[in-house]
Automatic annotation (TrEMBL):
The keyword Transcription does not apply. SUPFAM superfamilies: TPR-like. TPR repeats lie at residues 211-244, 292-325, 413-446, 453-486, 681-714, 842-875, 963-996, 1044-1077, 1165-1198, 1286-1319. Residues 932-1000 form the Anaphase-promoting complex subunit domain. It comes from the Eukaryota. It comes from Branchiostoma lanceolatum. It holds the Pfam family ANAPC5. This is TTC28 protein. InterPro entries: Apc5_dom, TPR-like_helical_dom_sf, TPR_rpt.
Amino acid sequence: MKDKAQQFDLYCQIGDLYRTKLHNLQSALQYYQNMLECSQALSEDTKQAKAYNRLGLTCDMAGEHQEACYNNERALAIYRDIGGKESDICVAHKSLASSLALSGQVSDAKTNYESALAVAMKTGNKTEQIDIYCKLGDLHRVLLDKPKVSKKYYTEMLELARELGRKEKERLACNRLGLACEDMQDNEAALDWHQKHLKMSQEDDDTNEHRIAHTNVGNAYRRLGKLDQATSHFNTALQMAQQTGDQHGQMKVYYCMGDMHKEQLHSPRTAIQYYEQHLALAKQLGDTNEEGLAYNRLGRIYCDMGKYEVALEWDKKDLKIRQYDGDKKKQRAAHTNVGNTYRLLGKLDRARSHFNTALLMAKQIGDLHEQMKVYFWIGEMHRKQLDTPRTAIQYYEKHLALARQLTDKHEEGLAYNKLGLAHSMMGEHEVALERFKKYLKIRQSDGDTRDEITALTSLGDTYCKLRNFDKAASHLKTALHIAQQTEDQQAQIKIYSSMCEMQKEQLNTPAVIGDKSQQFDLYCQIGDLYRTKLHNLQSALQYYQNMLECSQALSDDTKQAKAYSRLGMIYDMLGKQWTAFTHHKRALSIHKVRIHTDVCEAYKNLASSLAESGQVSDAKTYYESALAVAMETGKKTEQMNIYCLMGDLHRTQLDEPQIAHIHYIEMKALARDFGRKEEEMLAYNRLGLACEDMQDYEAALEWHQKALKMRKEAGDTKEVMVVHICVGDTYKDLGNFVKATSHFSTALQMAQQTGDQSSEMTCALRIGDLHREQLNSPHTAIQYYKQYLALAKQLGRKEEERQAYNRLGLACYDMGDYEADLGWSQKYLKMSQEAGDKGEVIDAHMSVCATYQELGNFDKATSHYSTALQMAQQTENQDREMACVMVIGDMHRKQLNSPHTAIQYYEQALALAKQLGRKEEERQAYNRLGLACYNMQDYEADLGWLQKYLKMSQEAGDKGEVIGAHMSVGATYKELGNFVKATSHYNTALQMAQQTGDKSSEIKCTLRIGDMHREQLHSPQTAIQYYEQALALARQLKDRHKEMEAYNSLGRAHHDMGEYKKALEWFQKHLKMSQDDEDEGEQITAHRRMGNTNRFLGQLDEATSHFNTALQMAQQTGDQDQQMYIHCEMGDMHLQQLHTPHTAIQYYEQYLALAKQLKNKHVEAVAYNRLGLTHNKMAKYEAALEWHQKDLKMIQDDGNNTDLILTHAHVGHTYSLLGKLDQAKSHFNTASQMVQQTGYRYGQMRVDLFMGDMHREQLHSPRKAIQYYEQYLVLARQMMNRRQEGRAYKKLGKAHYEMGEYKAGLEWFEKYLKISQECGDKTEQITAHKHIAESYKAQGKLDLARSHCQTAMDIAMETGNKQAQNYIAEVVAGL
C-alpha cells in the first residue's frame, strides 16, 4: 500500500508536468487515470477526489467538456460525502462551473460559481473570492452579454485585490473593467481602465501583459476615433509580440488593426490584408475560435464591399467551423450572417431558412441579442428586397422592443432610423419625422457623429417631402457642417445630393413656377452643385441652359452674362473648348458694354478656354489683358489668381518653368503683403512644381515643405494630403525612397481616414509606381494598382480605370507573368480605342506587342508594333514613333537575336531624340546601342556607347540610371579583361545603390561582382560573400526571382570550390522555389545545375535523370539556349565521369551546331575547346590540335584576353602531347606573358599545370615538374579552389612516385583522397584509392594496397563506373 501511495504522488507529478509544462494532454490524461486507479486501490476518498479534479482540468483543456463535467461532479460529490475541507469544496464548485460554462450550460455554471463564492466568503478566503468574482464577471460579460453585471463583479474583485495588496490581481481587474466598459460602449472609461492596466504592466515589467495592455489601449482609442494613437499602440503591441515570438499576441493585433481599417478608416482592402494575416496565424496555431472570427470578419467586409458571392464563401466557412466546435452562440450569429448574404444575393428562400434557424436557436436559450439582430435583418429583407415596408415595420418594432429591453441605445437608434425609412416609403412622412427625431436624439447623446449626420440628412429629406424647405435647409446645413468638420467626404456627397433634390422640389412649388428670377437663382444653385460638388457635368449643363433661357426671358444682361460664363465653364470641363470660347466671348462682350467690373473675370474665362483648346498664344494674351484690368482696378486678389494661371500656362503648356517661376514669385509676394495664407500656400506648391520641372529638386523640396508646414497649421486635411504627395514625389526624384514612401503612406492613411477616395486613388498609384519603378517590387506594386483599379471603378473614373489596367500589365510584365500581363494590356487597348485617344491606342498596341514578344508570338508582336508605328507616323507623333522604333529594336535584339537589325532601329531612335531635343531618349538610345554591340561581342564599340550613356546619366542627375550605367560599363570592362576598371565601376554602382537605399540595384551589383570573382577572377570564396549579401537583400525585398538567382549563384560558387554537397543544397533550394513559382526557365537551369553537381559526386544516374528532365523541358518550351548548354554538360559527364569520349563528342557536336545556329560566337569557341580536350583524351592529338586552333582563332578575333590565355595553354598542352615541345613552350610563354599583363591567376594556374605535365611526361624531369605543380598548388590554395587543390596533390603524388619517392608520393595521394572525400567527388576518390594502392604495392604493403583497391572497387560499382572497375581489377591482378 505504501508503494501505491508513492505511485499516486509520482503519477500526479508526472501528469502535472505533461499538462502544465510539456503541453502533452494525452500523456497527462494517462498518468491522471493511473492516479485514479491507485486512489481506488488505496480506498482513499481524498486522493480519488484529487484524481477526478486533475482529470476534469485536463479534459477541459482537451476540449472534452462533457467528460470534464463528469469528473468534476465526481470530485465535488466525494468532497461533500466525506465532509471535506471547505477550500476543496470551493475549488470543486469552481472547476465544475468552468466545465459547465465550456459545455454551454451557462445557468448551471453560474449556480456553481455562486456556490463557490458562498463557501469562499463563509471561510473568509479572499484570494478565492477574487478569482471567483473574475470568473463570474467573465461569465456575465462573455456568455450572458451582461457587461453591466460583469462590471459589478470586476469592481468587487478590484477592491479585494487592493485590500490584499495583490498587484497582479489588481492589474487583471483593470483589464477586465476596461473590457466590460468597451462592451457597454463607454469608451472613455474603457480607455481609462486599459491605461491603468498598461501602467501597472510597465511597472511590473511583464512583457505579455504589457503587450495585451497596448492592444487594448489601441482598441479603446480606435473606438474613440483617435486613430493615430490607436495605430501607435497597435504597432508597439505587434512589435513586442514579434520580438517575443508571441503568435497569439500578433493574431490579436492583426484582428484589431483589421477592425480599425474596416470600421474607422473605411479601407476594406487593407483590412482584408490584416484579417488574412490573423487567419493564417489562427490556422497555424490550430485555434478554431480565432479561425472562425477571421472567417466572420472576412465575410462581413466582402459583404460591405458588395462582393456577396465571396462573402458567402467566408460566411459558410464561419458557420461550418462553429458547427464543428459546438459554439452555439457563434453558430446563431453565423446563420444570421449567411442569411443576410443570401438576402443581398436575392436568394430570399435560403435567406429565410437561415434567419429562421438563427431565430429558433436564439429563442431556445433566450438569447435576446441574437433575436434582435435577426428581426433587424428580416425587416431589411422586407423593406429592400420584398418591397413590403408594412411587414418590415413589424420586424423593426420587435427589434426596437428588444433594444429597449436590453437598454442598448445603439440598436434602439438604429431601429428608429429603419422605422423612419419604412414609414417614408409608405408616404407616412409625419410618422417618419418623429422616428428620425428620436434617432437624432440618441445619436447626439452617444456622440456618434457619423450617424448624427445620417439622422440630420434624413430629417432634411423628410422636411423637404413635407414642403417645409426652411427646416429642410437648416437640417442639411447642420449635417454638412458636421460632415466638413469630421472630413467625411461620402457624407458630404450625400448631403449635396439631398440639397440638390430639395432645390428641384422648390422649382415645382407654385411660388417659384411663376417667378423667372427665382427659377434663375435655383437653376444656378443646382447647376453649381452638380458642377462643383457632385461632378455631374451633363446635369450641370442642363440647368445652366435653363439659367440662360430664364435670363433671356427676363431680358436681363447681367443674368445672361452670368449664364454664358457658367456655360463656358462647363463646356471647358466637357472638353468642348470652341463652344466654351464662344460662350465666354459672349459674356465678355456683355461685360465690356454693361458691367466693367466683371471684364477681368471674363478675360480669365476666355483665356482658360483658349488654353484648353491649345490656342496657348491667344490664351496668354487674354491672361495679360485680365492682369492689366486687375492692376488698373487695384484688384490684388485677381492679380494673385492671374499670376497663378499664367504660371500654370507657362509651366504645363509652354514648357517654360523658369518663366512660370517668375509669375509664382509675384503671386507669393502679393499673398504675403496682404496676409492671404491660402494663396501663399498655393504659391509655395506651384514654386515647388516649377523647380521640379527645372530639375532643381532640392529647391522644390524646400518649397513643398513650406507648403506642408502651413497646410498643417491651417488644419486643411485635404490640402495636407496633396502636399504630402508633392513632397513624396520630390523625395522620389532625389532618390530618397524611404522618405518618399513615408509621405505617400501618410497621404494614403489620411485619405482613408477622411473617406477621400479620389486622393486615396492618387496615393495608391504613386506608391504602386514607386514600388514598380524604383524599388523593383512589382508584387507589392500590384496590390496598390488593384486598389487603384477598384477605386476607379467605384468612382466611375474611366481614365483612371484605363491607367490601372496599363499599370497592372506593366507590373505583371516586370514579374515575367506575361499571360496575366496580356490580359491587362488588352483591356487597356480596348478602353483606349473606346476613348478615341490615339496616343493611348499607340501606347496600348506597344504594350500588347511587348507581351506577345515575351510569349514568343513574334507574328502578333510585329503586327501590333506595325500598327503602332503606322499610327504614330500618320499622326506625326514623333515621340511615339521614337518609342516604337526603340521597342522594335529591343525585339530584334532580345528575342530575334539580330543585334545588327536592332542597331538600325536604335540609330533611328537616336536621330529622332536628337531632333526633338529629348535628352532622356537620347540617353536610352546610347544604352540600347551599347547593349546591341555587347550582344555582338563588339566590346570596344559597346564601351563607347555606354560611356556616352554614363556621361548623360550623370549630367541628368538620375542616380538610378547612373548606377545602371556604371554596372553596364563594368560588365564591358570585364569582357575586355580589364578587371581593375570593371571592379571600380561595379564598386561605384554598389556604393551609390547603398547610399540611395536602392536595394534592388544593390542586389544586381552584388550578383555582378560575385559573378566576376567566380567566373573571371576564379575566387569563388569572395564570390560567395557577395552572393550571400544578394540573398539577404532578395529575401528582405521578397524578390523571389533574385532569391532564386542567388541560390543558383551560391550553388555554382560552392561547385567551383569543389564543395559539391553544399552546392547541391543550394541548387535544390533553387529547384524547389522555381517549381513553386511554376517558372519553367528556372526549373531547367536548376535541373542542369543539379545534374552537373551529381556527376561530380559520382551519382551518375541522378545526374542523367536531371539532365534528361532539363533537356525535355527545354525542347518542349523551344529554349535552344538551354538545350545547347545541356548538350555541353552531358558531353562533360561522358568525357570525365563515364569515360566514353565517343559519346561525349556527339553531345559536343550538337552543342557546336546550336551555337552556330544561334550565332553565339563565345559558345562556339567553347565547343571547339571541348572537342579539342576530348580528342586529347582519345590520344588523337592532331585532331585535337585542329579544334584548339579553331578555338584560338575565334578568341583572337573576339579579343577576350582571359579566354585567350586559357586557349594558348590548351594549344601548348596539345603540342606537348604531340612531342612538339618548342611550339608548346612558345604558347605557354605567350600565355604567361599575358597573365603578367592581366594578373589572371587562373590562367597562370593552368599554364603551371600543363608545364608540369610536359616536364613530367614528355621531358621525363619530375623534379622540374614538381616546381610547377607546387606553384599550381599555391595558386589553387590562394583562390580557395579545392578541386584544383586536389588535382595539384594528385600531380605531386605522381611526380614523387615516378622518382621512386613512394612515401612522399603516398602523402600527397592521401591529401588528394582527403579533399576528394570532403568534396564528395566519387570519381576522384576512385582515382585517389587507386594511386594509394599502387604506392603501397611499391612499398611491398600488399594488404593495404588490396584494402584501397577494394574500397575503390566498391565506389566504382556503387556509381556504375565500368571503366574504373576494369582498371582496378587490373591493379588487383598485379598484386
